[in-house]
Design goal:
It is built from eight helices and eight strands. The chain is an alpha/beta fold. The protein has one domain: Zn peptidases (Aminopeptidase). Helix 4 runs parallel beside helix 7. The structure holds N~2~-sulfamoyl-L-arginine and zinc ion (ZN). The site of N~2~-sulfamoyl-L-arginine has 13 residues, from helix 7 and strand 8.
């Protein structure tokens, strides 16, 4: 019952991933990273034609925010396209390895699927106080943690930063991937929705930019142009902090703590806020995919 152009349950996503790994065992490996707070196993999908070549790695994650369903759908579509190339050549895999984590926060994701009343849940589902559940995973990373754009109140449903950096098993799993492969990681993209923004560090402040901002800006604009050429809506390209400052994001951690040279948060879709119609996925996912091909081309060219 898995539908690549649909919104799938976490269980059917897991089955799909196992199936892809079985059907394409020459290029796909699943690496279990650990368990979510409620015990769901989170798996990293590693796609490579030559895992021993030391190729640059593109790391994409999705679904840290529970309600942003377009993001896991995009991550899964990227896996689908990288493994089902029409002419069998898989140009995107030449000289670049793709590591994809389609659902970082499966507990939150399943909670948003469980009833209409829960559809707009954002955080994890950990018990953080006597009365309230959940931490905003994208305020929980340990770089400039909690210096801006966060709530310290566990009952805040949007931006509670957590009791300490990396309090959540979900953010620790992403951190561990970055620490394990960080030296080879040349691009990190965290998929979110909504609004068609492609933003780069710093996220914790809008007062200044990293010295490399022009390279970050240029690559993002090329990606946006590629999506537009495919008929998609362009992305607004700027630093995350100039959009609005918020600390503890995964993009700043990848860039500032790990040293990943290109790091982005990509806010997919526009016009429907968090509830993007399932029927439109078959239109937008292929358009966005052209942007990821462009990311691959740029990374191959530079590294
Ligand atoms: O606020 C966020 O976490 C992201 N937007 S969302 O609507 N998906 O919640 C933007 C994060 C941008 N990056 C940083 N502020 N570090
Ligand atoms: Zn988000």
């Amino acid at each position: 019952n898995f539908n690549i152009y649909g919104y799938n349950s976490f269980a059917s996503i897991q089955e799909y991933l196992e199936d892809v790994a079985r059907r394409h065992s020459d290029i796909v490996k699943l690496q279990p990273l650990g368990n979510s707070y409620q015990g769901r196993t989170v798996k990293l999908v590693k796609i490579s034609k030559n895992p021993n070549a030391g190729n640059p790695i593109i790391f994409i994650d999705a679904g840290i925010h529970a309600r942003e369903w377009a993001a896991p759908a995009m991550a899964l579509y990227i896996i689908h396209r990288l493994t089902n190339h029409p002419d069998g050549r898989r140009k995107e895999l030449e000289g670049v390895d793709w590591y994809i984590l389609p659902v970082v926060n499966p507990d939150g994701y399943e909670f948003t699927r469980s009833s209409k009343a829960n559809r707009l849940w954002r955080k994890t589902r950990s018990k953080t106080s006597t009365n309230c559940l959940g931490v905003d995973g994208n305020r929980n990373y340990g770089y400039k943690w909690a210096v801006s754009g966060v709530s310290k109140d566990p009952c805040n449903k949007e931006t509670y930063a957590g009791p300490k950096p990396f309090s959540e098993p979900e953010t620790r799993m992403v951190r561990n991937v970055m620490m394990q492969y960080g030296q080879r990681m040349k691009l990190y993209v965290s998929l979110h929705s909504y609004g068609q923004y492609l933003v780069y560090p710093w996220g914790y402040t809008g007062d200044f930019l990293p010295k490399e901002w022009q390279k970050l800006d240029k690559m993002a604009k090329r990606v946006s142009a590629a999506v537009q050429s495919a008929g998609g809506a362009p992305f607004k390209v700027l630093s995350a902090g100039k959009w609005y400052a918020a600390a503890g994001g995964s993009d700043d951690f990848a860039f500032g703590a790990i040293g990943v040279p290109y790091s982005y948060t990509m806010e997919l879709t526009d016009g429907y806020e968090f509830v993007f119609p399932e029927s439109l996925l078959r239109i937008v996912l292929p358009q966005f995919y052209e942007g990821f091909k462009e990311f691959g081309t740029q990374i191959k060219r530079e590294f």
